[in-house]
Amino acid sequence: MMDVLSTFTVVLLFGLGIMNLLAVLTVIFLERRDIGATWAWMLVLYFIPIVGFLIYLFFGRLLKKKDFYHVKEEERLEQSRRVELQIAELNHLGDLRRTYPLIERYNQLIQMNLKSNGSLLSLKNEVTILSDGEQKFNRMMTDIMNAKHEINIQYYIIQKDSLGLALIDALTKMARQGIKVRLLYDAVGSRDLKRQDFKDLLHHGGEVFAFFPPTLGLINFRMNNRNHRKSCIIDGQIGYIGGFNVGTEYFGIDEKFGYWRDTHFRLEGEVVHDQLDRFILDWNQANDIYTDKTLFYYGSHEINQALPMQIVTSGPNSETEHLKNVLIKMISLAKKSVMIQSPYFIPDASYMDACKMALLSGVDVRIMIPNKPDHPFVYWATTAAAGELISYGAKIYTYEPGFLHAKTIVVDGEIASVGTTNIDARSFRLNFEMNSIVYDRATALELEQLFLADCEVSKLLTAEIYAERSRMIKFKESISRLLSPIL
After folding, report:
1. Which end of the chain has fewer CB atoms at under 10 Å, N or C?
2. 399-411, pLDDT tens digit by residue?
3. Cβ proximity of 312 and 322 under 8 Å
4. Residues designated catalytic
5. How far apart are CA 170 and CA 165, in angstroms?
6. Which pTM does this prediction carry?
7. Are the CB atoms for 356 and 135 separated by under 8 Å?
8. pLDDT tens digits along 422-448
9. Which residues contact 414 (CB under 8 A, 6 or more apart)?
């Protein structure tokens, strides 16, 4: 009996070793990864061969990119035609560039977004900045309860707490009144949700799907590629986009984190249609039955305010890291100042170089991060990157009243980005993300003032303070930095 067990153990270990070797060869030769990520996965597979293979199986495999989204050929051609028309207009000094001075200045950024991501430039919009959890959810719930035709909503996290259940209840009430309701949530971020939680909503005609649900019971081989987007579109007229998920912790009542500082946009105007286009792609990816674009409600609007915007998305289905490129391009265009807020600041070499070049060119670069970790390895990798930029003259602030979760960047008080993208490999390469880019001084200056107000309750991390950190912290930073390409 012992001989049989010994033989089985040897065969099992040999088999796992072969699979581990195949995983290494796959990472090196078949998967076109960032070099840093390739080395990080090789280290994991080499030093912890069996456990490392299991980690790779769940967290390391790349997503198949070909024909990921289900788009009809006529829709694809129409989108390409609209992009080409806008590019042609931007290439000539016509009415568009004369009427909107910031479009002239940031023409390169706009065209890059058009060419790489099909991000149409919308002109007539209104933006309301929401920086407090109660403020954001009270406003959104009011808009949901006032819906006349349709509600399309997706969140990475919907907690099964009083706020999450209140949202489901509100959507159910609207479905009962005949409003079309579509709800999309991430299967990992909202893992506590069960189909039973939507029984009444489904009974009254609502539709609910999980993005990348488990394929074998609780086993989810696509858990590394999460839909991190937070989007709500009401009647095709009102949109919400930003960093807030759905949960009572966003009301600042979690004792561990305290006040939750985040940033969200409430949108009205042409840009909401672009936001709806992106929702439809995710919806049809998660849904076995294709829903034609004509079945969604694209409401009209009466917005005449000139406020140019683009919606830019990125995900593991793309060869290009669209949103990383957007943020780097914004930094490279800065003449005076760059203000960044991110809960996770673990930039790759290209992003770090952009920050360093801006600093060396005399640009005032300020970066705000949390003062406490929610993920320890991620936090120590964040402080390591921040410490490196301090030596180049960056002003690094740690937000003290609670947890900073905002994902914003403001350049020269003229343009800004608000969305779901953190400054790390996960947001740049692994997650499905969505940001709004606004070309408007008033909105950018309001976000800049919010940043400066946050500075008043934050601590400046000086070179002297950073140098005094303990040897243990330095060790944690070194390990975390080594793993940063796959955190």
Report:
1. N
2. 999 999 999 999 9
3. yes
4. 228, 230, 235, 405, 407, 412
5. 9
6. 0.87
7. no
8. 999 889 988 999 999 999 999 999 999
9. 102, 105, 106, 439, 441, 444
**Whether 103 contacts 97, CB under 8 Å:** yes
41, 29 Cβ separation under 8 angstroms: no
Q: What is the CA radius of gyration of the chain?
A: 23
Q: Which two tokens stand for residue 213?
A: 């649900």
